[in-house]
Amino acid sequence: MIRLENTSIAFSGKPVISDLSFSIGESEHVAVLGKNGSGKSSLALYLAGVIPDLIEAQVGGKKQVPEKTALILQNPSSQFFALSVEQELGKKPASRFEMNSLWDKSVFELSEGEKQKVNLVANLMNESFAILLDEPLELLDPQEANRFQTLVEKEKEKTVVWFDKDERFVKNWKKIPLSPLSTASLSKPRLPSTGKTVLHADFSVSRESFHLNASFSLSENEKIAFIGKNGSGKTTLLKALAGIFPVFGTFSSSLGYAFVPQNPGQILFESTVEDVAAPGRLAELGITAFSKRHPLLLSKGEQKIVSLAATPHNSVLLLDEPTTWLDAERRKNVYGFISGAFQPMIIATHDEELLQYCHRIFLVENGGIKECSASTARRFFHPIRRN
Amino acid sequence: MFRFNRKTVLSPYPAELKFALFAGVNILAFVLHAPWALILLAAFGFGCLLIIRYESLLQLVLGLGMFLFFVDVWFFIFFSDFLPIDRFLLETNLRMTVVFFSAAVFSTVTDPFDILKLLRRLKIPEAVSLPVYIVLRFLPEIERQFEDIKAIQRLKGATWKNPGLLIARHLIPLTFVVLERANELSIAYYLRRKNGRI
Predict the structure, then answer these.
(1) How far apart are CA A168 and CA A173, in angstroms?
(2) Considering the domain boundaries, does residue B115 fall inside one?
(3) Which parts pass through the membrane (chain B) (predicted)?
(4) Per the CB 3.0–4.6 Å rule, which of A155, A233, B2, B157 could disulfide with A212?
(5) How many structural domains are present in chain B?
């Protein structure tokens, strides 16, 4: 049983949760939904005891939670302390968790989804009475997200609380809204590509035991998307174009490149958002409201959208998962930016909705890239479509 | 620079042996004063790096060079009045070279989890052993993040024309990324302790 009565949480006097009350019964599966900055993670940390034991905050109200409450965080890597699955779990898990194929693997061989699965199984084996999930699928590809989701839903005897930005993954769950959820719709149409080639690439890139061949061209104003499983090489491809990894072969462009990494913290340096942003970008992305704020003091979702605003106009944009950590309203802003910008973009993504704003889609698999139709892409994403 | 590569010729040996060798070389480096002995130890470390086919030798040597430069300048400014500076700098530089080379060899051929187990067997308190383990475990990931930051700043046109700004452009995002990861790790560690998983 989890019960909160008139709960409030504040950091340095600034409230993030005010007067919140709810009750979750034993073995119940409940989704707590809220926009970026609505206090989901703070609430999850409070329920798990991290706030105020480890992170200082002013809390009020009454809390009742099981003694052993596990919390799965967004980033699977940070929770994986050992270097192998065997070391991490300590003993072999029950067969229902289907861990045999992962048992002998080292952390460097595991995909993000597999690491997240090991985190979940480790907590389930430890007989935690309640499981809290803080946006656990944020960094996972559709197939892995689906497998994780199925594993969670099979745990009928556990109390599970799933914190997320929207109901994509928890459509059939009982819901507790922390903030009104967005119903914003996109009005900007996709701009047509001009057909004039600005980039021609034909190269291969190798990283340790991984090898990827890529051959494609990009037209002026064209947006192309790369989809594929975690570890298939989407990010490697973007990093090769950005000059982070050496390549064999050539790629040439009449424009420069701008790389926006998945983790926005890597790109933010200036002291205000308006210093970070290229001219006109704040308005394009609908974030003029926090132009005077310090980028490193923003929430992860807000930082993400600011990192997109930092991109220059005359360049090929290399966007690595541009909609990760964004709530529905901010995702719409990014879709509008992608479809309306007069510049070419290469986008690595797990976001199915984003594909409709791209001119072409490439599937990255088996060490190569292959242009695919919208229906093939739909089949790739199909496992996360649930009614 | 930090690769936990288990496929080197030195990797299969027990962690105790590797740790004893690492500790022995470093103790010798701080006990001995004769330059020829320190040069011999540094050459031994360099030989080990060649034997294990250390991938980032150039980066290691450049990093060591920069570190020694700053150490030398610092010593020269603050200690040159009351130390035999030539002799002192020679010894310090050679000692640091031995430490760098031996640390690179040790971190490459040893699984950090084995180090943790070894420190536990040696009854080293968890307050010391766990942070050591976590630093070793996550160094390669931090290094990868730094590679990204370098490339991003290069694409943004950061140059050596203004070295102070260039260093800040690298250090501020890196510090942020490291603090973010440290925050996540401390939360994950707290939860493990609370739920009896450590």
Answers:
(1) 11
(2) no
(3) 20-50, 57-77, 97-116
(4) A233
(5) 2
Q: Are A273 and A292 in contact (CB under 8 A)?
A: yes
**Distance between CA atoms of residues A232 and A111, nearest Å:** 10
Q: Is residue B9 part of a domain?
A: yes
Query: How far is A373 from B36, CA to CA, in rounded Å?
Result: 69
For A109-125, what is each residue's pLDDT tens digit?
777 778 888 888 888 88
Q: Which of A81, A83, A207, A313 best probes binding to B when mutated, by most B CB atoms within 10 angstroms?
A: A81
pLDDT digits (tens, 9 = 90+) for A252-281: 887 888 999 888 888 877 888 888 888 889
Q: Is A109 touching B (CB cutoff 8 A)?
A: no
Cα A358 from Cα A346, distance rounded (Å): 9
Interface predicted TM-score (ipTM) of this complex, two decimals: 0.80
Task: Report residues of chain A scoring pLDDT below 70.
Answer: 108, 128, 181-190, 208-209, 383-387
A contact test, residue of B143, B148, B175 with most A CBs within 10 A: B148
At A342-383, the pLDDT tens digits run 899 999 999 988 998 999 999 999 899 999 998 888 888 875
Percent residues over pLDDT 90 in chain B: 15
Q: Examine the domain organization and report whether B90 and B13 are in the same domain.
A: yes
Which two structure tokens, joined as six digits, stand for A108? 């460097």
pLDDT, one tens digit per residue, over A141-150 is 888 888 888 8
B20 with B106, same domain: the answer is yes
Domains (range + CATH), chain A: 2-177 (3.40.50.300), 197-384 (3.40.50.300)
Cα angle for residues B108, B149, B151 (degrees, 5° grid): 100
Using the 3D structure, point to which of B82, B110, B138 is the last residue of a domain.
Answer: B110
Radius of gyration for chain A, computed over Cα atoms and rounded to the nearest angstrom: 22
Please judge whether B148 and A261 are an interchain contact, meaning their C-beta atoms are less than 8 angstroms apart.
yes
B173–A265 CB contact, under 8 Å: yes
Domain holding B145, by residue range, is 125-198
